[in-house]
Write a structure and sequence with these properties.
Order of helices and strands: HEEEEEEEEEEEEEEEEEEEEEEEEEEHE
Largest sheet: 10 strands, mixed
Helix content: under 10%
Radius of gyration: 18 Å
Shape: globular
Strand content: 35-45%
Number of helices: 2
Distance between the termini: 15 Å
Number of strands: 27
Structural class: mainly beta
Length: 289
C-alpha cells in the first residue's frame, strides 16, 4: 500500500491530525551523509549487531528510572536496517545525542520498547528517506538543537556528562537550546517522500533550521504534529502535558522556513502561505488526494 493510501485510510477512519508550522513556507535542498551507527563512550551506549539488518542499542545511562541517555559519534540507518533501543518499561524518555560531524540519515526503521518518547538530537542535521519508519509507542522529537534543557538548570548537550544521581535529569525536558556560532546557520531537517507516523494520541515534533517535507507526510492520529524552524540561535520552550507536546517560540527568535513541496494541490491549498511574523498555523484533517 502506498504512503498516501495509508494516510487516506487513517483519515477515513476519522482520526484527526493536528499540524503546527512555525516559520515560513519555502524550499530547502536535501542533505547527504553515510549510513552507520557508532556509539561514543561518554554515557555507556552499546551497539550490538544481531544480523545484517538488525542492531540493538543497549547500555546508556539511566537517571531516576525514568530517563535513558544515549550518545553516538554517528547515527544513521540504512534502508531495510532496523535499529532498536532496548529500555526498561519504567523509562519515559529516551534521549539520544549525536556528537560527530555527520547528519543523521534515517533510511530504515527506528524503534523503541515500551511507551517511551524518543528524542533524537543532531546539530549537524537530520534526514528521513522514503523508507524511513518510526516504530515507537510514544512521541517522537527530532531536533538539530545543540542541547536539551530541563527544569532547574539540567542540560543534555554535546559535551555534558550525565550523572545517574542528578535529580535535574529525571524529569521531562523543558526547552531546546540552539547555541550557534554567528557564521553558521541552524542545520535543517529534511523529510524525503517518507510517511512518518506516531501512534494515536501521541506527538511528532521536528525542530531545526529550515524544515522541508518533500513529497512527505507526517501524521499523528488524534494527536499533535509540530514543525518548527529557527534562522539563528536561541531557545525554544517545550511544554509537555501527558502526550501533548507544544513548542514555545519566543518573539525574539528568528524564524526559518518550513516548506511542504511536491504535495497535492488540495494539501497545499489547505496549508496556504505562512509569513514569519505569523508563526502558527493549525490544519485539521487535511489529506492528499
Amino acid at each position: 500500500m502506498s504512503l498516501r493510501s495509508w494516510f487516506n485510510r487513517g483519515c477515513h477512519l476519522g482520526l484527526p491530525c493536528l499540524v503546527i508550522l512555525v516559520g515560513a513556507i519555502g524550499i530547502q535542498g536535501g542533505l547527504r551523509t553515510s549510513a552507520q551507527v557508532t556509539a561514543d563512550p561518554s554515557v555507556g551506549t552499546q551497539v550490538e549487531r544481531i544480523d545484517d539488518s538488525t542492531l540493538d542499542i543497549t547500555g546508556g545511562t539511566t537517571v531516576g528510572n525514568t530517563n535513558l541517555f544515549h550518545s553516538f559519534s554517528n547515527f544513521s540507518i540504512k534502508t531495510e536496517e532496523i535499529v532498536t533501543f532496548e529500555n526498561a518499561p519504567t523509562i519515559n524518555n529516551i534521549l539520544v545525542r549525536v556528537t560527530g560531524r555527520n547528519p543523521s540519515d534515517i533510511q530504515g526503521t527506528l524503534q523503541a520498547q515500551g511507551n517511551a518518547n524518543l528524542f533524537l538530537m543532531n546539530p549537524n542535521g537530520i534526514i528521513f528517506g522514503a523508507n524511513a519508519v518510526l516504530n515507537i509507542n510514544g512521541s517522537f522529537i527530532g531536533t538539530t538543537a545543540s542541547a536539551i534543557q530541563f527544569p532547574g538548570g539540567g542540560e543534555f548537550s554535546m559535551t555534558s556528562p550525565v550523572n545517574p544521581l542528578n535529580p535535574l535529569l529525571r524529569v521531562n525536558p523543558s526547552a531546546f537550546l540552539f547555541n550557534q556560532i554567528l557564521s553558521q546557520p541552524v542545520k535543517p531537517i529534511q523529510v524525503n517522500e517518507a510517511f512518518l507516523l506516531v501512534p494515536e494520541s501521541q506527538s511528532l515534533v521536528l525542530l531545526g533550521g529550515d524544515v522541508n517535507l518533500e513529497g512527505a507526510i507526517v501524521y499523528a492520529p488524534d494527536g499533535r504534529v509540530e514543525l518548527g524552524g529557527l534562522a539563528a540561535g536561541g531557545t525554544v520552550g517545550l511544554n509537555i502535558d501527558n502526550n501533548n507536546f507544544r513548542l514555545n517560540f519566543p518573539e525574539s527568535v528568528a524564524r526559518a522556513d518550513v516548506s511542504l513541496t511536491n504535495l497535492s494541490s488540495k494539501t497545499l491549498a489547505s496549508v496556504g502561505a505562512l509569513g514569519r511574523r505569523f508563526p502558527l498555523l493549525f490544519v485539521r484533517g487535511s489529506k492528499p488526494t
